[in-house]
């Protein structure tokens, strides 16, 4: 009898656990979404735990339970941004049937940076304790995924694809930042991208 009772209660317990997990994931997504909205409208200095709690009608302890700190929230936003960037670059790379995949990825990168300035800022400009480029596992997989979409462009075409990929990413980041801060005139953006693509287009081996 005890065996049958335990078998009957196990599915119910599993359903409760699954619902709690879904609720937790939904709250986490809601907090991240609210942080992104506030940052896009008012800047990251206004994204505080108190402001987020008021925005989504949760207590501050709930936010701390999910992320530990304000930096934890911003880190989660940044990691989400890298996943979105990786998907955008992957889509741009795969949709090229004829033409230059380097150019398509470059255009997608700059479009991402220009269309989501606050998200791009938290990914690259804020002082967060996110580990980049650690093959030992400290780097979040979303960051590896984003970088892999650049790395694949140069694998088999150069003896140092990782270094070339880093230089290409650095060049795109420089263009994105100098364009955002209006140090580069927009009238020459297409020419800049074409020239950059030419410098990073290598003959296949």
Summed up:
By secondary structure, the chain is mainly α. It is globular.
What portion of residues is helical? over 70%
**Fraction in beta strands:** under 5%
The tally of domains stands at 2
Shape: globular
CATH topological fold name of the largest domain: Tetracycline Repressor, domain 2
Query: Could you report the average pLDDT, rounded to the nearest whole number?
Result: 89
CATH superfamily of the largest domain: Tetracycline Repressor, domain 2
Characterization of the model:
By secondary structure, the protein is mainly α. The chain has 2 domains: 1-68, Arc Repressor Mutant, subunit A (Orthogonal Bundle); 77-205, Tetracycline Repressor, domain 2, CATH 1.10.357.10. Helices cover 73% and strands 0% of the residues. Helix 4 (70-94) crosses helix 6 (117-124) and helix 7 crosses helix 8 (161-180). The protein is globular.
């Amino acid at each position: 009898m005890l065996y049958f009772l335990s078998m009957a209660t196990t599915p119910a317990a599993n359903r409760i656990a699954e619902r709690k997990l879904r609720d937790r994931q939904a709250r986490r997504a809601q907090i991240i979404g609210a942080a992104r909205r506030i940052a896009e409208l008012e800047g990251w200095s206004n994204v505080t735990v108190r402001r987020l709690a008021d925005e989504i009608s949760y207590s501050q302890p709930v936010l701390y339970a999910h992320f530990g700190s304000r930096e934890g929230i911003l880190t989660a936003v940044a990691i989400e941004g890298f996943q979105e960037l990786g998907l955008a670059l992957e889509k741009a790379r795969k949709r090229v049937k004829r033409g230059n995949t380097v150019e398509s990825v470059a255009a997608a990168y700059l479009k991402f940076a220009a269309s989501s300035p606050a998200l791009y800022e938290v990914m690259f400009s804020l002082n967060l304790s996110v580990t980049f480029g650690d093959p030992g596992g400290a780097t979040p997989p979303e960051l590896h995924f984003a970088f892999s979409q650049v790395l694949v462009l140069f694998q088999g075409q150069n003896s140092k694809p990782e270094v070339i990929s880093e230089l290409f990413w650095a060049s795109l980041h420089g263009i994105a930042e100098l364009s955002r801060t209006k140090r580069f005139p927009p009238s020459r953006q297409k020419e800049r991208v074409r020239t950059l693509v030419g410098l990073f287009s290598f003959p296949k081996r």
